[in-house]
Amino acid sequence: MSGPLLFWLAGSALIGLGVYGITVNRHPLRKLLALNLLGSGVFLLFGVIARRGAAAGLGGDPVPQALVITGIVVAFSATAIAIALLSQLQSKAGRTSLDDEPPDEEDRS
Amino acid sequence: MTEQVFDAALALLVMGVGAWSMMAGRITSAVIIFIVYGLLLSLVWVRIAAIDVALTEAAIGSGATGMLLIAAAYKTGRESGARETVSGSLHVIAVLLASSVALGLASLAFVLPGEPVSLAGDVLRSLPDSGLGNPVAGVLFVYRSFDTLLEKIVLLVALLGVWSLGSDRDWGGIPGLKPFAQKHSVLVLLARTLPPIGLTYAIYMTWVGADVPGGAFQGGTVLAAMWVLVMLAGVRQIPRLSSPALRAAIVAGPVVFLAIGFLGFVSPGQFLAYPQGFAKPLIVAMEIALTLSIGVILGLLSAGPSNGKDAR
Amino acid sequence: MLDLFSVACVLGGAILFMAGTIGLLRFPDQLTRLHALTKVDNLGLGLIVLGLLPQFGWLTGVKLFCTWLLVQLSGAIVTQLIGGAIRTREPRR
């Protein structure tokens, strides 16, 4: 098995793990972690595609690689916003659950 | 043979550590494992010949994201120590869904169309026109410069989003980052010795980014790390968000980018096109302004919105 | 001969890293775990850098050496901070 193929399989597994983490975990921060894992799996698939496009003396196709760099930055921005929202939710509502029913009498959504 | 064994071990390790970060008991552990995962992933990027991506993943995907996540885990993760998941049958459905997604994607590896499509040749053919030596930088600043401009604006909007989550009264105040209280801590020593080295390194990284892997984003992240270190150690005051110098630094990158973009209307007659022969100096000027902006924006993102005088 | 030196040094470094990792996973409390980690940082990375030095030109050599120095600096200070944090928390346990 060649290296890129192995990393493609790893990327697929990471996407699967991310999907699992997003659906199963209750804590929003864990969902966010899973979303980042999913995203990095997608980027890895891009990287393998770039590696397959190795040509003209380059180790990989630079266009998908540049796309991944932009993607990582945008994912970071989204994470930063999500974390700010989360910490705001906690300081306003006193909890970090996204469930409908409040755990106690206080419900300020 | 040895390379394949290494690749296989690395792929297994990345999958294992990724799974571990999903399953870890405490949320702070999960976040720290995720940072380790990011560093391992950047090794994978090195293995598939994407050094620029490896640097970005290590700096942003693992470092900057990890810093924000640790702070968030510390703030929000205490109330629920154990990992809460959905119950019984839903859990089974989620596992089935996730594994079918993974298996479906994995199977695509065997049905990919035979002849790989590559733009590498085209990029290398037009790269000499830009004067750059790094093909990825060429793609980012010439071929896809509009995307790169918008990416910086996304970052700026993210900062505005974080700021606007503070209350109206505190707009433009001092961010809610709490400095590490101990005055004679050894952290102060680090905050006094490391920044000159880090600053040199950030400048170096931005400068060589035109020709070898590196660039504004990686340099800017190093810059941000130094600034956060200085703020955390309490060596310098955290500035007010309304400070004009700070705001100028935040918008410097996008403004220079846009200005050079509009300059394109004058000389070659198109937005974001560079005048013949001036591409490299203009791109380097853009990268320098962007490094400053990215450094300040990343630092302020980790400092959070201002929460008034009465810090919690 | 130089290649042999490199292989020996890098191998020694790798073994140290493995020992340190086992220590990190198996040692009973935080201070001994910290102990395992710092030895690896100093000597393991030092050996790997030393082994790689003859393989490259002088400029890369200087960069490698600087990497080692920076890891020394950050390692020493982070260890100190973690140690201090453990000590201040100790009485409450």
Verbal overview:
The complex is a heterotrimer of chains A (109), B (312) and C (93). Chain A has 109 residues and is an all-alpha fold. Chain A has one domain: Helix Hairpins, CATH 1.10.287. Chain A is built from three helices and no strands. In chain A, helix 2 runs antiparallel to helix 3. Chain A is elongated and about 55 Å long. The C terminus of chain A is likely disordered. By secondary structure, chain B is mainly alpha-helical. Chain B contains eleven helices and no strands. In chain B, helix 8 packs antiparallel against helix 11. Chain C is built from three helices and no strands. The longest helix of chain C has 32 residues. Chain C has one domain. Chains in contact: A-B, B-C. At the B-C interface, helix 8 of B face helix 3 of C.
Give the assembly state of these chains.
Answer: heterotrimer
Low-confidence stretches of chain A: 102-109
In the CATH hierarchy, the third-tier topology of chain A is known as Helix Hairpins
Shape of chain A: elongated
Helix share bin of chain C: over 70%
Distance between the termini of chain A: 52 Å
Classification by helices and strands of chain C? mainly alpha
Total number of distinct structural domains of chain A? 1
Biggest pleated-sheet summary of chain C: none
What is the strand and helix layout of this fold?
The complex is a heterotrimer of chains A (109), B (312) and C (93).
Chain A: H1 3-24, H2 28-52, H3 62-93
Helix pairs in contact in A: 1-2, 2-3
Chain B: H1 2-23, H2 27-47, H3 51-76, H4 88-108, H5 120-130, H6 135-143, H7 145-164, H8 186-208, H9 216-233, H10 244-266, H11 279-303
Helix pairs in contact in B: 1-2, 2-3, 3-9, 5-6, 6-7, 7-10, 7-11, 8-9, 8-11, 9-11, 10-11
Chain C: H1 2-26, H2 30-52, H3 58-89
Notable features of this structure?
heterotrimer, B: 312 residues, mainly alpha, 2 domains, 11 helices, C: 93 residues, elongated
Could you give a short description of this structure?
The complex is a heterotrimer of chains A (about 110), B (about 300) and C (about 90). Chain A has about 110 residues and is mostly helical. Chain A has helices at about 5-25, 30-50, 60-95.
